[in-house]
Design a protein that fits this description.
Strand 1 and strand 2 form a beta hairpin. By secondary structure, this protein is mainly beta. The N and C termini lie far apart (96 Å). Strands 3, 4, 5, 7, 8 and 9 form a 6-stranded antiparallel beta sheet that branches. The protein is 10% helix and 49% strand.
């Protein structure tokens, strides 16, 4: 015979024991926030918020993390003022701001905030961890790319495209044939997301000769990528 009354009583007792624990786990007393993320000045402000718990001493600790295209997994950034416990005053709710300047680009940043509540004997009674939203810092500089170079009826043409986020100022485009310079053309600038045909007058190159164009050989433009500034073809 199954003793239903005893089983029901046992289930009720277990529910009473587990319910407060589940409720405590779902109720966060600490929170990490992203207050601002400036892509022009490369400055971000993060914030830690902690609420009182059983009149215990509240503390928080900030850890800055970064992810880059070369290393996409978030990792810790070692910097002054991070990794130390900050003690909150005896208030119901306490907020603390952390401003980070000089952020590198392109990269993504976030803040990991650890919280703990300690009793008079410095024993940790409760601990939590919260991760802020991500502050993305794209590279806004221009990026000049040579998409083509070819012999024209009256000379040579190089196609320069700016795939960056900002306009590029004035720069030169050098033309070389079989490794020897044959001339240079000045370009006044290229808007982001646009291309320009750069022309150099001259005689046609012979079949099998190598034609090379180099954009911004003097590095006058501060580019996001300096490794894509040449294009080579066979005539």
């Amino acid at each position: 015979m199954i003793r239903w009354r005893r089983i029901i009583g046992l289930c009720a007792a277990l529910f009473c024991l587990l319910a407060p624990a589940a409720d405590a786990a779902s109720t966060g007393y600490g929170k990490a926030l992203l207050v601002s993320c400036d892509r022009d000045t490369h400055v971000a402000m993060f914030q830690g918020q902690v609420s009182a718990y059983r009149k215990l001493k509240m503390q928080m600790r900030f850890t800055l993390q970064v992810a880059t295209p070369e290393a996409p997994r978030f990792r810790r950034v070692v910097a002054a003022g991070f990794g130390e416990w900050i003690t909150a005053p005896a208030v119901r709710k306490y907020t603390y701001d952390k401003t980070v300047e000089g952020l590198l680009v392109p990269a993504s940043y976030r803040m990991v905030v650890d919280f703990r509540w300690r009793d008079a004997r410095t024993r940790t009674v409760r601990s939590e961890r919260s991760i802020s939203p991500v502050c993305r810092q794209p590279d806004l500089r221009p990026d000049l790319v040579l998409r083509d170079v070819r012999a024209d009826r009256d000379g040579y043409v190089a196609v320069v495209f700016n795939r960056g986020k900002q306009a590029a100022g004035a720069f030169d485009v050098d033309f070389l044939r079989n490794g020897k310079a044959i001339g240079s053309t000045r370009v006044l600038g290229v808007a982001p997301g646009t291309s320009v045909d750069v022309f150099l007058p001259g005689s046609r190159c012979g079949e099998g000769e190598e034609l090379l164009a180099v954009v911004d050989p003097l590095s006058e433009v501060d580019e996001a990528n300096e490794d894509n500034d040449d294009f080579k073809v066979a005539c």
